[in-house]
Amino acid sequence: MPGARFWRSASIRLAALYAILFAVSAGAMTGVLWWSTSHLLNQTVDSAIVTDARALSVYWANGGEAEMSQAINDRMLGDIDDVSIYLLADDAYHPKIGNLLAWPPGVDRTDVYYEFPIARAGQRSVVRVRYWDLPNGYHLLIGRDVQARAQLRDVLASSLAWGLLLLVGLGTVGGVLVRVVLARMLANVSVTARAIAAGDLSRRVKLSKRGDEFDELAVTINDMLDRISRLMDGVLQVSNAIAHDLRTPITRARARLEDANRDDASVESLRSAIDRATSDLDGAVAVFQALLRIAEIESGARRSAFATIDLVPVLTDLAELYEAVADESGKKFKLTLPPLSGRAHSAQATLTTYGDRDMIQQALANLLDNALKYSPPGASVELRAARDGTDVRIDVIDQGPGMSDADMKRATERFFRAEAARNSPGSGLGLALVQAVALLHGRDLALSHGNPGLVATLRLPRAKLVVGEDGAAQPNAPQAKAAHV
Amino acid sequence: MRILVVEDDRDVAGFVVKGLREAGHTVEHVDNGRDGLFLAASETFDAIILDRMLPGGVDGVRLLETLRAQQITTSVLFLSALSGVDDRVRGLRAGGDDYLTKPFAFSELLARVEALSRRGRAEVPATKLAVADLEVDLLSRTVKRSGQKIDLQPREFRLLEFLARHAGQVVTRTMLLEGVWDYHFDPQTNVIDVHVSRLRQKVDKPFGSALIHTVRNAGYMLRAE
């Protein structure tokens, strides 16, 4: 149905709504104008009639009918505009003098004004009259021609009608114009959206450079599309990496088992092949496990396990765990904690955060694993923690080969491995997990040059340990910054 | 030990049952939750190995909750493909004593099940643990071997205590990481080996004979020669 389609257009509906709104307000304005003007005109006419009646009644008091007739005659002669109506009638309402031929029918009360149409000098007109009783049964009727008021009303009414007509016309044209403009602006968006839906993720909404609302919408949509395409790239990249990183150990395991299945294999070689295949499969499982863990962290589900925790024992325990490892491989290990706080009752420095202890431990363990793995013998690894504004800043500093700027940018991607690290064992998921943990806590992981070596900086939100009335520590969660995952 | 295995995957169940029997245990196996609940409630076991996802309308967590509601305190080890941190917490909260995710190494399963048997017994809080000529005093937190005092760091003491509590049993690296350090992840480096080797330097080396033994492909064991 074309009618229904017409009304489905938002611009036509908008134009119609606008026209109706305008018509109603124009009508109301004209009404008010009409009402106040006619009211004013009536008041003027009424007071002129009353004044006239008072003046004429003086003549009657002075000289009776003859004097009044003379005065009325004078007034009729002096009325150049021909707007005054006079009629003096006897007790039987027969006209004595005046410019009405007969007493108008229906005029029988002295306390109200009457309005009626008459024909005067061949022209139709409207008059407003009132009459008074005089002594001896005489009646005096005085009135004014109010055709001018009627003309004003007609002008107002017809201009309103023409105005409405004009409004409908202009409204329709405007609606159509708006529709055309809107359609052109939205076509830009819908063409892009359709292209995206069809699979072309590179398409973007064009900007008009006017910087208007449509451009704002276009920028928002483009940002959204950029994010979607980044996510898609991520998924694709991870799928490829999974395919590669899981295929490799599985292929190796398969090859070993097939090789071991040869007829001339000895029991020892069989055992060793099976052991190595098992450890290859364990490697694949570890990759799975790490991927699942990262996904679990990124989903944000771990946030329910957040608590206020003191990082000092966490760091001390980790340092103790890894110091032995460093020692064993001829490396030095150093733990630096912030200085003791001045308060007398706290025997220990506190470094409080609001988060997930297990996740933080694992993130730091990954950083320390890396630092020790890439450090040459004799080098030192430092674990350093400090308060930094609203953050707790934890640095893991090594003196290994470091990373190039390009590698740093990509280091937290899943499965990314720097060229130099290709030959050492690892899945390329360690830093991705640390980054996920940092984002879970609303902060991030930053890598920088240590000259020599690498500095990995993990930031966590600082929380205050509020000691409640019962002496128990109350968690005081800081405002978590929105986590981008 | 008398062990009940509730596991619906036939291959996994067969592998577990065979391994446990070879290790000298008596094993009953059922492949669904309802039979598992019936058997666990009507007979006495030292430990139950329980899958989380089971056919028959009664899953592992429900089975365990029902058992615990009936005051049956048999040690339970969950064996599950659900590996999330929350899955683990849910399993332990339902009354599980340990949680092992699939895929797993049989040596890890065996070590954990055998460790459970100790836990199941109504332990009189021991104040002293003794293995051969090694004495671990839990009150004064001192260690003596052949009457000679050994100085240990607090963490080394806890490591030795853990080994001594499970004397004669295999203790895996993961069990040590969880039991001594309370870490629930696997570090890439061989941190546990380093710490055990340090402990050996103090406990074994000066005395000529070894008490801390490495069990190939499994972990460690504290025992008299």
In which order are the strands of the major sheet of chain A placed?
2-1-5-4-3
What is the helical fraction of chain B, as a range of percent?
Answer: 40-55%
Beta fraction of the residues of chain B? 15-25%
> What gap, in angstroms, lies between the N and C termini of chain B?
24 Å
Q: State the name of the first-level CATH class of the largest domain in chain A.
A: Alpha Beta
Q: Could you give the count of β-strands of chain A?
A: 14
Q: What fold name stands as the CATH topology of the largest domain in chain B? A: Rossmann fold
Number of individual domains of chain A: 3
Q: Round the mean pLDDT of chain B to the nearest integer and report it.
A: 90
The biggest beta sheet of chain B is recorded as: 5 strands, parallel
Helix share bin of chain A? 40-55%
Oligomer: heterodimer
Succession of helices and strands of chain A: HHEEEEEHHHEHEEHEEHHEEEE
